[in-house]
Amino acid sequence: xxxxxxxxxxxxxxxxxxxxxxxxxxxxxxxxxxxxxxxxxxxxxxxxxxxxxxxxxxxxxxxxxxxxxxxxxxxxxxxxxxxxxxxxxxxxxxxxxxxxxxxxxxxxxxxxxxxxxxxxxxxxxxxxxxxxxxxxxxxxxxxxxxxxxxxxxxxxxxxxxxxxxxxxxxxxxxxxxxxxxxxxxxxxxxxxxxxxxxxxxxxxxxxxxxxxxxxxxxxxxxxxxxxxxxxxxxxxxxxxxxxxxxxxxxxxxxxxxxxxxxxxxxxxxxxxxxxxxxxxxxxxxxxxxxxxxxxxxxxxxxxxxxxxxxxxxxxxxxxxxxxxxxxxxxxxxxxxxxxxxxxxxxxxxxxxxxxxxxxxxxxxxxxxxxxxxxxxxxxxxxxxxxxxxxxxxxxxxxxxxxxxxxxxxxxxxxxxxxxxxxxxxxxxxxxxxxxxxxxxxxxxxxxxxxxxxxxxxxxx
Amino acid sequence: xxxxxxxxxxxxxxxxxxxxxxxxxxxxxxxxxxxxxxxxxxxxxxxxxxxxxxxxxxxxxxxxxxxxxxxxxxxxxxxxxxxxxxxxxxxxxxxxxxxxxxxxxxxxxxxxxxxxxxxxxxxxxxxxxxxxxxxxxxxxxxxxxxxxxxxxxxxxxxxxxxxxxxxxxxxxxxxxxxxxxxxxxxxxxxxxxxxxxxxxxxxxxxxxxxxxxxxxxxxxxxxxxxxxxxxxxxxxxxxxxxxxxxxxxxxxxxxxxxxxxxxxxxxxxxxxxxxxxxxxxxxxxxxxxxxxxxxxxxxxxxxxxxxxxxxxxxxxxxxxxxxxxxxxxxxxxxxxxxxxxxxxxxxxxxxxxxxxxxxxxxxxxxxxxxxxxxxxxxxxxxxxxxxxxxxxxxxxxxxxxxxxxxxxxxxxxxxxxxxxxxxxxxxxxxxxxxxxxxxxxxxxxxxxxxxxxxxxxxxx
Lengths: 460, 460
Description:
Aspartate Aminotransferase, domain 2; five-stranded mixed sheet; about 40% helix
């Protein structure tokens, strides 16, 4: 068993390799998936590997791993690297606390709770509110769904699903809604996908129509998922109007802000989630807009009773000291739980709420740079809208799937495509707040250069 | 936005603080939970914090955070620190890939798959087997339950729970079984808790009796959870005999090896999970016996079809290149997913399967040291059994809850208590493979010294 100091030294050496590599090759050289195992020795064997070989191998792995922190990575709803958050996550690895009890997590419990308390205050939840750190946005939505289900039929926890529940979400919402309905015993057929308007926002009138129809058919409307930042267009569902309906029919309202819920940190953009204080639960991912390492998801509930009712379990061998408010395992899906809070806390503490606001606003500023560029250039067709950090476009009618794949395979830039209604397009996500205006313009430049040099690209 | 190099330097400085502190104060000074917020400034504010203050604050937080890697931490089913695994997890933080697609994770996909393939081989699963990395042992059990449920009634995914399913687990199994039944729409009342024998192992005859009774009552036996390492006693359910039953009645058999499933790495101890190749799914936590940072959980299924059937979802905006075998999001609960595989791979690759075997066997060796000590010392009463790394005992009839709390509050050592049938006792977990014989003997010494100096301790 080797020494921690040696391995920390090796870590530092490898980070230097990575940072140099990120500058030299912002898009990592791609290994064809079919040739992966012959290209890098990933094999696990009976014998130990000698140190120098191991170091070289790690170097190879690092060099060929896709770079998500560079100024040419636009493929996902995360990107870049907030170094103060990296610091916190590195410390979490070394400290290695599990978040279920105060006895084992100590002040880390307070760190998690402070983030939750401040977040609840920001969105206007009252004194009964609380929350937890699920393992991602899908899990946040799942926990909300379970709470919605259990609130509508508390006997479900003991007796299982016995009632014809139906749930609602927009056609543009995240696919976890579909999976979650299956996991929770509700069933995918009992999701009502509500139509979105021309800008990708759930149409409240359609929601109410559907609820009325379901009530007439003796179904039980149980849960509505509204989205703050849809996956493709980055659209915001009209929470206030949806809340009018969920309050009227007594349905759990969850706001899935995994992608763009962090607008709560900016008083210039928090109008996009106006009405969120009327929801029952709200989730956001700090590993998306706020740039922490993966994963850092937060779910807030307007009354912590619901979190406790659905997720608590007594366990004498575990909860042995301190009260429920400090033994966070009573309100989490998991038992053992990684410390995902520290990275967000080191970021927030060091740059302040003001700093988080700047991070959020930078992304909209970059989006506006992209929008302006596209609008002023007739070779582009724009498919997205204002107040979104997803910039959707096509260039010279090049088939977007083919273009994205070619850009990736030729190490030009990493970007994905998406669809809305009849259209398919490239989706540029301006979520990396480390980027400057110049990086966005450079993205268009490398794309255009590549297209001009590649006449074989298919047109739509 | 500060510089990554500065923050890496700060990280290195703080790790030094931590390591020094671990030697000086292996048990961190405890802050009373009620005084936490006045003792450390955890508050998040609008303004940024100045760098020096921030550094000092982090130092305070680190010093007062419970130390889980020291030779006086025995409180949980994890402890210690395998430095090669720490290296991998630190790299995962910096690389920050999400594991859903090959496009974004590249060779990290192969790293995860290699661990899964080798693990499947070790337990004797066939060529159709596969697996994934859930976010913990509870989630592993949950994924298994969902697969068992969906296999018994495939229409459940679409229509929800419509059949009277019942599931089975021993009274000594992990509490996640109870929570999971609720989450999956089965309901806690539909769990049958099967009696354990005098050594804490599920009694197969009782299982079959219960199944027959349920069949007679038109219930549908759906899922059996067997445990490899029960939470309190560390007992191993008799998998072969249970598999005879689950095969006969066509019931999904899951083996929850969260705690001690890693015995598969030792040919001296893998007899404890004899028959595991007959299970439908098996899970183990490398962050427990193998000492990786939290969390590193693996679930294996004997046929990957089940994983795909219950957890896949198409998403055009996400799965854009490479095949399903490389786009791991098709078989995970989550969408975005942290890289929990790299830490295990760096450990395994560097020390070999042989090294993992040594880690596992060291824990049983330490357990034997503890057992010998207790058996040869009449002041102790022993409550646990051979072939377990949970050593359960009482000393001089001191009330174990009071003693554990006092040891913790006086910074002597961190250890917990547990119960089995009528008895309550201290549970010493010899899971930290960094420990030597001397560390175990020292544990008893500090405990005895403390008891001798503290006559006020309550007796049973």
